[in-house]
TrEMBL record, chain A:
Source species, domain of life: Bacteria
InterPro entries given in the database record: AAA+_ATPase (IPR003593), ABC_carbohydrate_import_ATPase (IPR050107), ABC_transporter-like_ATP-bd (IPR003439), ABC_transporter-like_CS (IPR017871), P-loop_NTPase (IPR027417)
Alphabetical keyword list: ATP-binding, Nucleotide-binding, Repeat, Transport
Keyword Thylakoid: no
Domain ABC transporter: 12-247, 261-507
Name of the molecule in the record: ATP-binding cassette domain-containing protein
Automatic annotation (TrEMBL), chain B:
Membrane topology designation: Multi-pass membrane protein
Main location: membrane
Localization, UniProt: Cell membrane
Species name: Glycomyces albidus
Record protein name field: Sugar ABC transporter permease YjfF
MF annotations from Gene Ontology: transmembrane transporter activity
């Protein structure tokens, strides 16, 4: 049950917030309270309205109804700059810095130390160094931001927000590109800030981190408020139940479905022999049988994506041979791959997959139209029927075929992309990080779909950073390290998270 | 409290990074030196310092609009109106002083103010109505050419007015025959513009904001930078520079030709790109633009010394150079991306 009004005056009090996007109600009467010095997690599935709530608070979006009080005073910010001036800073999931400028300039852009009208670069570099030291990172502050990894850029963004001496710091999925050490640094910074009295709003899909760091949680679902709890009073299972609004047993069912199904006797669909590309992935052998799910596991940058891109024809191999349905494939590229029945959902759905301004239906039929040739249009009735069928089957929300895809949440965009490839009835489906950055519910939907499709005889190549997911879905797992395929795990006993980690570590020792 | 420290070295050494950053401008400077040495080797008197000085006399107006264009391109925009605004400004100078009889200093202030206001207005249209800069400034290209011809379709002379003699008044640096040279006041105006632009771009918040907006406008917005002020500001700078270039042209020729400077905006863009500024914004230098303008001037000088070549050869070579520099930028950008992943 939601907790009763806790002690302490509210720093931020949002009441009855309503936000409409061209006909879709993204927030419907949401209340949110933030107290000084607390770390408050906002939880919910993708599309629940977390990001919209944050963007209303930070002045990116205006709200259509409701009230925001900051320190008891009604406020309404018209730009992120205005919110920042009032003491509300934000760190977004995507690094929002300009990577053509130096680290120091990014930290102090818009508030550089000056001598008269001129920027004092020496003082700026010194302050930048001190600020980063304080947080626990050591960089060359004069180097362009673009010369650092995304994770480090994210930490720089956080350092910038921290230094603005904000009363309220909003962290929207700040950890999605960080590794364990980097997450520890971030959580350490958060604890220190909380001790100093800064209130923080924390949004993350990583439940462990949320439980480790947060004091309270507000749960949203479908744009409405489910409730607010003290973290200690809300067990994970209950939280997931609140977020999904249904019993979270779906994941267990997939496990059973996947292990029930056997493919050892099937003939190979794809056989890669010594396939490789210089500077991208060392030559590898890989076989995918009909109806088989082959997972690719490895650390970020280990060559998982590069491996599947060769099979998908997105990159050209410069060594080895590829056989598809027993025939050698020559002159392989994205177009011929699609014609052969190889569907590839790339990692970055926004830039490589979907056309944001086209509608859900238009995005779905793109590949199907391409495979028919542009001259032969798809009858409207058939199109509408297919689109409706896939919206229903994949649980795309909102279930409106005429909605521009950019208005959908990440998880739902991913489903649209999947539907696009399902429509051409491929023989091999290549999914590169299909569940990255999407919530538990959409993840479960996509995993369930993969299991169902493979049971129907579709072969799937599945890349994911989440080892749990790979082990749960795969019939076999290819393990990669340092741009080399180092092992293929086949037996039931080998396909555990621990075994994959051991293989990666051992693969490193040999080389 | 003990915290662990994360250290990361830049993926590229700063030295390497610095080098890649300076490759395009290095190529431009090398080219400039090669052209000059080529001229010295082939033509008598090419080594006279006045040959170099003349670059800054003939091309002072181009230099000024190219500096304004550098601001716009660095911010990720483009300004096609500068050639027409420049011609309009020259014509306005003539009309205000010769026909309307307004005192020349007052006319000069009015022309400069008008150019700046035009820039502010078109910048506001680009920012607040989210119009493509290409289209918005194309409006200016047509509008001001038409207005110029509407004021007078003939040449107007300003010789009678004493004020317009000021620009070509010159400062001598030694006797020409002893290896000296001279520069008119208008060249010093152009130098002043370059210095102010350099300091503004590198050492002020507005200047760094131009780079930030050119790097990523949405990030700049979320970082709380004054994006509107910056974007509108660069067009105001460009408008001011175009008007000032028009004034310099009035000084240089003491006449206004309604069909002057057709295509000057494209010369300016070419000079900016050859000077190493990325057309996508966010990277480049105003001093590169100076080198770009000098390359253009040097080509024209060489053709003049050759004597039997048509002046269109300067454009032909410029076209080829532009292609080479755009390809060079792409190659560098691609190697940068590769290094990062």
């Amino acid at each position: 049950m939601p907790a009763t009004a806790p002690p302490g005056a509210a720093l931020v009090q949002m009441t009855g917030i309503v936000k409409d996007f061209t006909g879709v109600r993204a927030l419907d009467g949401v209340d949110f309270t933030l107290r000084p010095g607390e770390i408050h997690a906002v939880m919910g599935e993708n599309g629940a309205g977390k990001s919209t709530l944050i963007k209303v608070l930070t002045g990116v979006h205006g709200h259509d109804a409701g009230e925001i009080l900051l320190d008891g005073e009604p406020v309404r910010f018209h730009s992120p700059k205005a919110a920042q001036a009032a003491g509300i800073s934000t760190v977004y999931q995507e690094v929002n810095l300009t990577d053509n400028l130096s680290v120091a300039e990014n930290l102090f852009a818009g508030r550089e130390p000056r001598l008269g009208p001129f920027i004092n670069f020496r003082a700026m570099r010194r302050k930048a160094k001190a600020l980063l030291d304080d947080i626990g990172i050591d960089l060359n502050v004069a180097a362009p931001l673009s010369s650092y990894s995304i994770a480090m850029q994210q930490l720089v963004a956080i350092a910038r927000a921290v230094d603005i001496e904000s009363k309220v710091l909003i962290l929207d999925e700040p950890t999605s590109s960080l590794d364990r050490d980097e997450v520890e640094v971030l959580l350490g910074v958060m604890r220190r800030l909380a001790a100093d009295g800064t209130a923080m709003v924390f949004i993350s899909h990583f439940l462990d981190q949320v439980y480790e760091i947060s004091d309270r949680m507000t749960v949203l679902r479908n744009g409405t408020l489910v409730g607010e709890w003290a973290t200690a009073d809300l067990p994970q299972s209950e939280l997931i139940g609140h977020m999904l609004g249904r019993e979270a047993a779906t994941l267990e069912q997939i496990e059973r479905a996947a292990s029930a199904h056997r493919v050892e006797d099937e003939e190979p669909l794809v056989e890669a022999r010594g396939l490789g590309r210089k500077g991208s992935i060392a030559p590898y052998d890989l076989t995918v049988r009909r109806g088989e799910v082959v997972g690719l596991a490895g650390l970020l940058g280990s060559g998982r994506t590069e491996t599947v891109r060769l099979i998908a024809g997105a990159d050209r191999a410069d060594s080895g041979a590829l056989q598809f349905e027993g025939r050698r494939v020559g002159g392989h590229n994205s177009r011929t791959a699609a014609a052969r029945g190889i569907a590839f959902c790339p990692e970055n759905r926004k830039t490589e997959g979907l056309v944001g301004d086209l509608t859900v239906a238009e995005n779905m039929i793109l590949a199907m139209q391409a495979s028919r040739g542009w001259a032969r249009s798809i009858p409207v009735a058939r199109r509408d029927k297919l689109v409706a069928e896939f919206i229903e089957k994949l649980g795309i929300r909102p279930a409106d075929p005429d909605m521009p895809v950019k208005n959908l949440s990440g998880g739902n965009q991913q489903k649209v992309l999947l539907a696009r490839w399902m429509l051409i009835e491929p023989k091999l489906l290549i999914l590169d990080e299909p569940t990255r950055g999407i919530d538990v519910g959409a993840k479960a939907d996509i995993q369930r779909l993969v299991a169902e499709l493979s049971a129907d005889g579709l072969s799937v190549l599945f890349v994911s950073a989440e080892l749990d997911e790979v082990t749960r879905l795969s019939d076999r797992i290819a393990v990669l390290r340092d741009r080399e395929l180092i092992a293929v795990l086949e037996s039931e006993a080998d396909m555990t998270t621990e075994r994959i980690v051991d293989t990666i570590v051992a693969g490193g020792r040999e080389s | 409290m003990t915290t662990q420290t994360l250290t990361e070295r830049p993926a590229r050494s700063t030295l390497f990074d610095g080098l890649t950053r300076y490759v395009p401008i290095g190529a431009t400077v090398a080219l400039l030196i090669a052209l000059y040495l080529g001229g010295v080797a082939n033509y008598p008197n090419f080594d006279s310092p006045q040959v170099v000085a003349k670059l800054f006399i003939d091309n002072a107006p181009l230099l000024v609009i190219a500096v304004g264009m550098t601001f716009v391109i660095l911010s990720g925009g483009i300004d096609l109106s500068v050639g027409s605004v420049m011609a309009f400004s020259t014509m306005a100078c003539a009309w205000l002083t010769v026909d309307a009889g307004i005192p020349a200093p007052a006319a000069l202030v009015m022309v400069l103010a008008f150019g700046t206001l035009w820039g502010l207005a078109i910048g506001a249209v680009i920012h607040y109505f989210n119009v493509q800069p290409f289209i918005a400034t194309l409006v200016g290209l047509f509008l001001f050419r038409g207005l110029t011809l509407q004021i007078n379709s003939e040449d107007v002379s300003m010789r009678e007015i004493e004020f317009w003699q000021w620009g070509m008044t010159h400062v001598d640096f030694g006797e020409i025959r002893d290896g000296g040279f001279w520069l008119p006041y208008l060249s010093f105006v152009a130098f002043a513009v370059v210095i102010v632009a350099f300091v503004t771009l590198h050492y002020t918040r507005f200047g760094r904001g131009v780079y930030a907006v050119g790097g990523s406008e949405s990030s700049a917005l979320l970082m709380g930078l004054p994006v509107a002020r910056t974007k509108i500001g660069v067009y105001a700078v460009s408008g001011f520079c175009a008007a000032l270039a028009g004034v310099l042209a009035a000084f240089a020729t003491k006449s206004a030709n309604p069909l002057a400077n057709v295509g000057a905006e494209l010369d300016a863009i070419a000079a900016v790109v050859i000077g190493g500024t990325l057309l996508t914004g966010g990277a480049g230098f105003v001093l590169g633009t100076v080198a770009g303008v000098m390359v253009w001037g040097m080509l024209n000088t060489l053709i003049a010394f050759q004597g039997n070549l048509s002046s269109w050869w300067a454009r032909i070579v410029m076209g080829i150079l532009l292609l080479a520099f755009i390809l060079l930028q792409r190659v560098l950008a691609r190697s940068g991306e590769k290094r990062r992943t």
